[in-house]
Every structure is written in structure tokens, then in C-alpha cells.
Design a protein that fits this description.
Layout (H helix, E strand, L loop, with lengths): L2 E11 L8 E5 L2 E6 L3 E2 L8 E9 L7 E5 L19 E4 L9 E4 L4 E4 L4 E5 L6 E7 L2 H6 L7 E5 L3 E3 L9 E9 L5 E3 L3 E6 L21 E5 L10 H5 L5 E5 L3 E4 L4 E3 L4 E4 L8 E4 L3 E4 L2 E6 L2 E2 L12 E4 L2 E6 L2 E3 L6 E2 L4 E6 L2 E3 L20 E3 L2 E6 L2 E3 L7 E3 L11 E5 L2 E3 L6 E4 L2 E5 L2 E3 L10 E3 L9 E5 L2 E2 L24 E2 L13 H10 L10 H12 L45 H7 L24 H10 L4
Parallel strand pairs: 1-4, 9-16, 17-18, 18-21, 19-22, 20-23, 21-24, 22-25, 23-26, 24-27, 25-28, 26-29, 27-30, 28-31, 29-32, 30-33, 31-34, 32-35, 33-36, 34-37, 35-38, 36-39, 37-40, 38-41, 39-42, 40-43, 42-44
Antiparallel strand pairs: 1-5, 1-7, 2-3, 2-6, 8-10, 10-13, 11-12, 11-14, 14-15, 14-16
Length: about 625
């Protein structure tokens, strides 16, 4: 529109060498002489900024030129070309350098500790700060000194607030006060955060604060179809916060991969009747989604699809947790979590990865019965059972960053591993806590170490904290590093440290106690433990196996699901209409016992999303957690 406007432009180079200063011309006339672009910054607030006025007459297009100066002086990039970099434009805002910036908590952070201290980077010339805080973005944006959202004028760039409710959204704004007499106030941006809460009472590790579908819709799985209304696929692929409950039990034959791409999802497999749910033919995994909770599912693809498949995964996921799931009969690895952040894989059972089964990347006859390739920053893997998998028990897949340096921080503790073949735990990551794991050789086991770090110093450091691990019949927890393979030309104390790199946030047990704890509670054991998992757990306890691979004849390592009898019967049972007549995820009997309305209008989830006791869990979560609560 005609009149005066402002423009802020952002300039940061990702080249190796600095770029020259530049001028900004409007219609050929110098308007602003800028400094040098910033170099390889990772925060917008650290980028070089130019701020200037534009006058629009509405009679001709505005022509703005960015012109690099000579690039041969004071260390700037020497080149025949004069480079200018422009990363972003902001119209009709205040000067970014006069505003409060770099908020903590970060704008949009949904996993903030209760009662956080708000802080920010103040403008260099600010003499004070006006602080606003509330639960409505529009209200905070429009608030004035007379509004209840105004917390006052503060001198420090920090303030502790009373935000505690995990089901609320919090918004705040900092206006910077300038001038000798505080005569100028620069309105700040509105920032948002939410308070974290455990995904469920027994959630541990770095994925424990996954929000899942809390506060959203309830989607019911009412049939065993691959797709369409009432299917698991339709619920998983939906958008928005959602909790998936099951009104049906049985075997779901997937006709393609089932991928979680949208955040805020809870899959509550414990709600299924009968023997629960088992997925076959294809797999289930998260790709790039955040705040996902998956509990009490079985994924047993088998070799039906003719495709090289894994079982479950959290690739590039953030704040996700998988709990009490069972994975078996995969052609690739059973589980993968490369490039993930803030994840937990707990109390889950990986078994019988198919060994010589025609993996597409290997010669015919090659063994590939692999359990898991795990990455994460930070990834927690605890109280899991890995049984009858030839290798990658675990494979540490920390990966490399864009500079080719090792990444990944992994916490691996209190896991039980049984009857591998030629590989136990190997690979590498930047930092690994490897604590109190229990390894039990089986009839196919050929190697007897617990950890083989595959270090390559050309890719940067790769360090470990190792303590309390056991190899049954070989060495106990008192021999601290006994089961660690020493790389060539290195000593163990070159890379094994005396203290953990980061806390685990896991209730940790001695390895022999974890062995019993895991066998007592692992895998998809709700609504019931199936025959497959019961057999595997009995074999682990007794040190035996029942079957051999049809190709290799290796004990306990199947080459096809048919080697162990294939899928057992999972009866198709459905809940009656009276089970949950208003379809809000809360059974009628539970609602009547707890004083809520079993006949809410359609799509009314008010009861399900209420939190009358203020404990941070909605009533729906209270119900889901009551199903999984252990006696005593």
C-alpha cells in the first residue's frame, strides 16, 4: 500500500570464508550500508540484519538492489564474483535488533519443565522489559499495561512463571523499553510453550514426555481391514491429536507399509478385546513425526510380501515412545531408529528375525537375522528382550553429521539378549551408556563378548561408559569391562570413561535382577501374552530352543515364519455397542463408576479430555493407565 514501510533483511553465509560487506540501494540510490554477512550461524537471532525504510508511491515497482563491495580486503572471500546472500525478509515489523530475541523456553517447545524460568536475549540498548503472560495467543498479543496478562516492568531478562498445567498452552511477550526516559517501547513477538508430562506413569528414558494424542479425538478401530473406515490405517494416517482404541481383536493383514507421518498419536493396543492385535505382511513405523506413543501391539510381517521389511521404527522421530510391543519375523532388522531424538524403546520383545530369507541387499544364502539398528539423541533402550536374532543385538547406528563426525547419544541398560549367532552389540555412536545388560548364550551363539565398539577416529570421538554387564556362564558384573572387544591399536581406557555421559531417567536394576524383571513383564502381554512370546520367554529362561532354521538348520534362528509354525490364531472379537455407547474411548461401565456421562453427544470428547483431579492425565488416559497398572 502507498506510504512508509519498513523492511528487515537477514544475511548469513554458509560458505567457508567470510563474504564482503554490501550496500542496499532503492531505485539506484544508496539507502543502507550494511556490514558483513554473518558466517555459518545456526540461530536466526545471530544472523546479520539490515533494517531500513521504504516509501511506496504506488506508481511504480520498488526496485531494491543488494550490491557487494570489493571482496579482496581484510580476509573476505577473494573471487571475481561479488557474492551477496539473502536468507529472509520481514516487512513492516520493528527493528529485530531492538526486540527481545532468543526466548527460553524456545518458541513452540512442548516439553518444558513446570514453573519454568522465562529468559530472553535483550536488545542491546534496552533499559527495561515489559512482560506479558497468559493462555491465549490473541489476548497476549493485544495486552496492555491494564491487562491482567501484564506481569510488570522488569530489569532482568528472566522471570520465573507459574506454568504447571500440561493440558494448557502458554503464551508470553516481552516488549523492550528504550530511551533515557523509557519513552520508546518496542513490541515483541508472542512466544508459545507447553508444560511436559509423562506419557504414562511407567514411561522412562528420553521419550518419556511424548504427548501422544492427549486432549484430541478418539478414533476407534472397528474392523481388521487394511484400509478404509474403521481401519487402523485410517486412524494412524489421520491428522491432529488422536488416540486410537480398538473395538476389535485379531490379525490385520497390511497390504502396504503403515507409516506414522503426523504427530500427536497414541495407539492404545491394550484396549483390544480377546488376544489383542497382531499386524502381518507389512510393518508399522514412525517417519519424521513427533509425540507418538505406541503400546501393546504385535508386528510380525513374515515373508508374505516379498519385500525386505523391518518391523517397527522411529526414524527421525522426536519425543516418541514404544512400550510393551512384540516384533518378530522380519526380513530386515526388527527395529530401527536412525536420526531420532528424545525417544524410548522399552519393555518390548524382539525375536526370531528371519535369518536366510532373501534379503534384497545380500547374496542368496546370506544370514541377516538382525534385531535392531538404534540411533537417537538421546535414545533410551531399556528392559527389552532380544531373543533368537543372529546379529545386531544391538547395532549402534549413531550416524554422522553433515561434517562427517560421529553423532548419536544412546543409553542402553537392563536389556536381556539370548541366543545370537555371530554378532552381539557392535557399531558406534558419539556417546554410549552401556549399563547392567544381561547376555545369555544359546545353542547358536558363536561369539562371547557383549560389546564391540567399531571406532573410526577419522570420524571423530566415539566414547563409552560401561558398567555392570553380565554374560551368563562367562563373566559377572564385577568384571567391569570383561566383555568389551578392544579395537586394534587402542586400549579400553582410551575410550571407556569412569562416569556416565548423561542421566538415564530409568529406574536401573542389577543385571541379574533385570533378567527376572524383563521375563516377568515384556512384550505385548495385554490383553494377554500370545503363544509365540510365551514360548520364546520359556526358551530364554531354560536356555533352549524348539525349532531350527529350514535353510541353515541353526537352532532357534528361523529362516521363515513357517519354521516355527507361522501365525497362531487371533480370534476376531468385537465389542458390543453397549461397551462404549458414546464412542469417546471410555467404557460405559467405567463412566458410570466415575461419574461421567456415558451418553455424550457424537464427537464430544469433553469427558475423555477432562482432568478433574489435576494430575495432568486426562480421564481417557486415567482409563488407559488403569488397564496397564500392575497389581501392588
Amino acid at each position: 500500500s502507498p506510504g512508509k514501510h519498513t523492511m528487515a533483511t537477514y544475511h548469513s553465509s554458509f560458505w567457508k570464508d567470510p563474504l564482503p560487506p554490501f550496500d542496499i540501494l532503492i531505485h539506484g540510490a544508496l539507502r543502507h550500508s550494511a556490514g558483513r554477512p554473518s558466517l555459518r550461524v545456526t540461530n536466526d537471532a545471530d544472523a546479520a540484519v539490515a533494517y531500513f525504510e521504504i516509501r511506496d508511491s504506488d506508481t511504480r515497482p520498488i526496485v531494491i538492489d543488494f550490491v557487494a563491495k570489493d571482496s579482496t580486503d581484510d580476509g573476505a572471500r577473494s573471487t571475481a564474483l561479488k557474492h551477496v546472500v539473502l536468507n529472509g525478509i520481514e516487512l513492516d515489523g520493528t527493528n529485530p535488533l531492538s526486540r527481545a530475541r532468543v526466548p527460553q523456553p524456545l518458541d513452540g517447545d512442548e516439553h518444558v519443565a513446570a514453573s519454568p524460568t522465562l529468559s530472553w536475549r535483550p536488545a542491546a540498548a534496552a533499559v527495561a522489559h515489559d512482560l506479558y503472560f497468559g493462555t491465549s495467543q490473541s489476548v497476549v498479543a493485544a495486552a496492555t499495561h491494564r491487562s491482567p496478562e501484564y506481569l510488570g516492568r522488569v530489569s532482568d531478562a528472566r522471570h520465573t512463571c507459574a506454568a504447571k498445567e500440561p493440558n494448557a498452552e502458554y503464551f508470553w511477550r516481552v516488549d523492550e523499553v528504550h530511551g533515557e526516559h523509557a519513552e520508546e517501547v518496542i513490541t515483541g513477538d508472542v512466544w508459545r510453550f507447553r508444560v511436559r508430562h509423562l506419557a504414562f506413569p511407567t514411561a522412562e528414558g528420553y521419550g518419556r514426555f511424548a504427548r501422544g494424542g492427549r486432549g484430541g479425538r478418539v478414533l476407534e478401530v472397528t474392523n481388521l481391514n487394511d484400509s478404509g473406515p474403521g481401519s487402523l490405517r485410517e486412524a494412524v494416517e489421520a491428522e491432529g491429536a488422536r488416540t486410537v482404541v480398538f473395538r476389535v481383536s485379531g490379525l490385520i493383514t497390511l497390504e502396504s507399509k503403515l507409516i506414522v507421518r503426523h504427530p500427536y498419536l497414541t495407539i492404545a493396543g491394550q484396549t483390544a478385546p480377546g488376544k489383542g492385535i497382531c499386524l502381518r505382511k507389512f510393518n508399522l513405523g514412525v517417519i519424521g513425526a513427533h509425540d507418538v506413543v505406541i503400546r501393546y501391539l504385535r508386528v510380525r510381517p513374515g515373508d508374505l510380501s516379498g519385500v525386505t521389511l523391518d518391523g517397527m521404527g522411529l526414524a527421525s522421530g522426536d519425543h516418541c515412545i514404544i512400550d510393551h510391543c512384540s516384533i518378530s519375523w522380519t526380513l530386515d532388522e526388527a527395529f530401527s531408529s536412525r536420526a531420532a531424538k528424545n525417544i524410548t524403546f522399552q519393555r518390548s520383545l524382539i525375536s526370531e528375525a528371519l535369518n536366510v530369507a532373501g534379503h534384497k541387499n545380500y547374496k542368496p544364502g546370506t544370514q541377516h537375522g538382525y534385531a535392531a539398528s538404534i540411533g537417537g539423541d538421546i535414545g533410551s533402550f531399556h528392559h527389552n528382550l532380544l531373543a533368537h536374532c543372529a546379529g545386531r543385538n544391538w547395532s549402534l547406528a549413531g550416524g554422522l553429521d553433515k561434517a562427517g563426525v560421529h553423532t548419536g547419544r544412546l543409553d542402553i541398560r537392563n536389556n536381556v539378549v539370548y541366543n545370537w549367532s555371530h554378532r552381539t552389540t557392535d557399531g558406534g555412536a558419539m556417546q554410549v551408556n552401556f549399563v547392567n545388560n544381561y547376555y545369555k548364550p544359546g545353542p547358536s551363539s558363536k561369539v562371547f563378548h557383549v560389546l564391540k565398539p567399531e571406532r573410526n577416529l577419522g570420524f571423530g570421538p566415539q566414547d563409552y561408559f560401561v558398567e555392570g554387564n553380565v554374560m551368563e556362564g562367562r563373566y559377572d558384573a564385577s568384571l567391569r569391562w570383561e566383555g568389551v572387544i578392544k579395537p586394534r591399536d587402542e586400549e579400553l581406557d582410551d575410550f571407556i570413561h569412569e562416569t556416565p555421559f548423561f542421566p538415564s531417567y530409568v529406574v536401573t536394576e542389577p543385571a541379574n535382577v533385570a533378567f527376572e524383571s524383563v521375563l516377568a513383564d515384556v512384550g505385548c502381554n495385554l490383553p494377554v501374552l500370545d503363544d509365540h512370546d510365551a514360548r520364546v520367554m520359556e526358551e530364554v529362561r531354560n536356555g533352549t530352543c524348539t525349532f531350527r532354521g529350514s535353510v541353515t538348520q541353526l537352532p532357534g534362528l528361523p529362516d521363515s515364519q513357517q519354521d516355527v509354525g507361522g501365525w497362531e490364531e487371533y480370534p476376531e472379537l468385537s465389542r458390543t455397542e453397549e461397551w462404549d455407547s458414546d464412542h469417546d474411548g471410555l467404557p460405559d461401565a467405567w463412566e458410570m463408576a466415575n461419574g461421567t456421562n456415558p451418553s455424550s453427544p457424537a464427537n464430544d470428547f469433553g469427558d475423555a479430555n477432562a482432568d478433574p483431579d489435576g494430575d495432568g492425565y486426562t480421564l481417557l488416559e486415567d482409563y488407559l493407565n488403569s488397564i496397564t497398572a500392575k497389581p501392588g
